[in-house]
Amino acid sequence: MGMAERHAPRHGASAVFGVRHKSENSMLADLTRIYYAFPDGVLHHVCAECSALCCKGQGFGGSLHREMGQLLRMYPALESMVVSQQGGILAFATPAGRCYFLDHDNLCRIEKEHGKALKPGVCTLFPFNVFSRIGNTVTVSPHFLCPLRLELPARPGKTEGTHARLTTAIAESGLLTAQNIERRLTQVRLHPSQDACAVLARERSFLAACSAALQKKKFRTALHGQHTQGAVLDTFLTRATAVLGLAISRRPIARDSLDDVLLAIAPAFRLDLLGLPTDGILKALALGEVIVRRTLALASGPPTLQGTYDLLAKIGPMLRLLASDQEPLLLPKLQHMKLDSFEAPQLKLAAFAAHRAAERGTPTLEALEQVMEPTLSIADRALLLLDLGNRSDVVAAAKAP
Could you tell me the residue ranges of all domains in the chain? Predict the structure, then answer.
């Protein structure tokens, strides 16, 4: 494959400048204040070979101070497709299934005809353009809308997910002006016991442990290595899986390809878990592995980065709820609750009992153990826990500073 193919990714989406949420023209003052939430040199994509529709019709965006002013002069028809402007960043709609500038060779016509400097910044960075903040540090995560490949052993400099390469691309994109960082990038919600500096140090340590464990250790082993008392994880899993109605196997599980997939995506997924205490984050990841392994037993092929991350994201509210095990159950006041999302009377009664337990300040896992009737099916338990997890997330976000 030629260099033109390797370095001419498809158009990314303004929707995926997906910010999880100092002068206008100033670049990020210190580009060392970036935290890449994935191992260096293990995530790769080759857009010219890809048939996925992930980024073809999602729109695109870029900086008026870098490329967009010139593109509007060159392609005035674009003006009528502007959908938003914020902090000097314009976003444009594109037709579903195919960007205006995506040629049939899956390469960007702007880049082919005018060079990479004029390619929209969001497209240049995609899929590494999910930004948020921990304190004053910008976090960069992959967007798993893209079916990224896992390249092992790590090959920094040879893969698109190379940290040094991305640092240069981010600087050149013009997207991270101080104003845009302030306006567009939301702060990741942290646990009250943690400050931003401590969280970043801990996350960098976890990332290093995951990177070192690739092709060598099981994911569970890496988690135990981060916990001061590994037996606590096992005790939690026994209780949490019982609440879910699952029987956890005591037989050792051989290391397999899912271990490497989890090691690669866990640092990014942890950004959605930072509202938990340190051991709660590890508990959520350990429980996530149990559920993902059970679910992937249905699949006919090996686990993928995209599919595994998507599964974890879908059950995220449940994981956060259960992993808050020692903290008081956090739910809306009962008078503000609507229980009509549950059709089965048993689920309504269980949800009502959970809210009463929350009003008493009962620890989360203890409360959930109390409300789960033995006759509830695994499916009903999952529905209840996801619903309560979503409600708990809303309350936690409202309480966040």
Answer: 3-184, 196-323, 334-399
